[in-house]
Amino acid sequence: MIYIKRKEHFCAAHKLWNDKWDAATNKRIFGKCSNENYHGHNFELEVTVRGEINPDTGFVMNLFDLKQIVREHVIDVVDHKNLNLDVPEFKDLNPTAENIVVVIYDKLKKVLDSNLDLEVTLYETVRNFVTYSGN
Ligand code: NI
Which partner from 30, 38, 41, 84 sits 20 to 30 angstroms from 78, CA to CA? Predict the structure, then answer.
């Protein structure tokens, strides 16, 4: 099995908030990410596809195709957007790094060849990052 990887970058705003809690609790739990008027992050995305080498092409999958899929199904949807307001998946879902990575995974999994395994890593900051591979 071979792992091929594509890196992408996007900028997006969000606010982390739980309506069941008062403002002080939200501030304590979510810190700066609870800012009422949103705030931005420079997200780094790493998409890993695992599969066997196709003997005809020598590829697991064409990295150009992977680039196009990630751009169309993820970057165009989230880049320079307010995740809470502009991306329907986050209408009632807190856009934490964990939830964002699951949403991105689900979007990509739907359009990738079903015999390929997928893993997605999202960096919210240089030092904070999360990985999801479907279970
Ligand atoms: Ni934040």
Answer: 30
Contact 96, 31 (CB under 8 A): no
CA of 19 to the centre of ligand 1 (A): 17
Q: Find, among 44, 94, 96, 33, the residue nearest to 74 by Cα.
A: 44
How far apart (Å, rounded) are the C-alpha atoms in residues 113 and 104? 16
- Spatial separation of the C-alpha atoms in residues 104 and 48, rounded to whole Å: 12
What is the CB neighbour count within 10 angstroms for residue 34?
18
Quick: pLDDT tens for 51-78.
999 999 999 999 999 999 999 999 999 9
Q: Is there a catalytic annotation at residue 124?
A: yes
